[in-house]
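Entry 14. Structure prediction run on the chain below.
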Amino acid sequence: MSFLSLIFLFSLLTLVQSQSQSPRGTFIDCGATVASLIDGRQWLPDSTYVSSGTSKNLTAPNLVPILSTVRSFPLRGNINKKFCYVVPVIRTWKYMVRTTYYYGGVNGRNSPPVFDQIVDGTRWGIVNTTDDYARRMVSYYEGIFVAAGKTMSFCIAANTNTDSDPFISALEFIILGDSLYNSTDFGQYALNLVARHSFGHNGSIIRYPDDQFDRFWEPFVLGNSAMSSFRNVPVSDFWNLPPVKIFETELASRGVEPIEFQWPPASLPNSTYYIALYFANDRGSSSRMFHISINGITYYHNLSVTSDGVAVFATKWLLGGLTNIILTPATESEIGPLINAGEVFNLLLLGGRTLTRDVTALESVKKSLESPPQDWIGDPCLPSQYSWTGVTCSGGPRIRVISLNLSNMGLSGSLSPSIANLTALANVWLGNNSLSGSIPDFSRLKRLEKLHLEDNQFSGEIPLSLGNIDSLRELFLQNNNLTGQVPNSLAGKPGLNLKIFPGNNFSPSPPSGA
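Output returned:
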């Protein structure tokens, strides 16, 4: 999590647009009702992307447009339930997802709530803006994700520590170039930003138009900060395409001496991190060579830095607590070490995804229902503590829906035949609702053990195919409007607990041999 001061954010959002192409992607002004043009980008109202929550206006003075509204989601009765934005994306493309939060007292309490944020089936982390808000700071979170489908969901969810309504100010899905952070296995991981700094820089945050992807490079100043005379590093040769501006300042030693500093500034939890450090020699005719160590462990030995610049990556580096970096000049170096910028990301293990066929089937079921559960959006099964209301899923690498329990939910509408595509279902409880129409064909559900459709308004005949489900042990159909005859394959099925009365209007079975 990082933060921006309100003054910084105001100045950054009112920059004059340069001739470079604006960042591409989707920019959502949460809670807004009209679009706005800021810094050459179209910020969209969020009603197209989210179907729950309430738009609220903030009353704090001098707020920039994207901070003047929030979307707030009800806490009451919604612990461990998620509220999701669904955003169209291009499958396999890489996206920087950035969320922005400014509380502004919207809940009437002095401090903002703490809650979770989720991307698809992965719990991204905890949103805790309390300290930032106390300092009148705007909080933002940034992650790098690869789209696994045609949409990505971003969700907010109340956890057991949430004490008032969760909210969000802005949501961005920015398309990144293929080469950026490409040493990461995005099939297994996402990247969660910990820190991104321009060393020696003491001005405003560096972002678009200097950074074509609008990444935020925060200032980082120590006693050995210096301006560099170098301005022409060929950044197109860098995989991560850093902005040229980060090479205008540096941390450099006085003479041929080591540099030692603590970075990132905050203590880190024990985990695995992606690290990228950026260097460019501003004295082209002099040899600059040094060693890099992190917490006493060699990170790179004999790094030769030229005027063309160099970036050194570690894709899986263990860190925990405070991080100490030492740059030690090599024996043959004519001048001391320097460093221009750095990025650190936590490797975020992806939570997986519910099997696409099951997701599609549940979406069809949802469309056939009137007033389905409000949290039926995003991934149905994941994260597991935030699965959809009434949905139980399997574990393991292949996530399937194994149970559906929507009894006593006040549902109406019909039951989509697509429910039969949930082929791992063992139990279906839909009793005591107001569902109508015919009972779909469940014969493809070879594992189905219990089917409860009692106390609804289903009509027509009992499907003959129900009798062909060998695993079926419980079938409750009482108190509907069913007609016709009870199939012999059900009436005489050994081991089946069949309930069809009271209610219904079945015809008598024909005499044997008739």
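The helical segments are 6-13, 130-134, 356-368, 488-491.
Filed with the rest of this week's runs.
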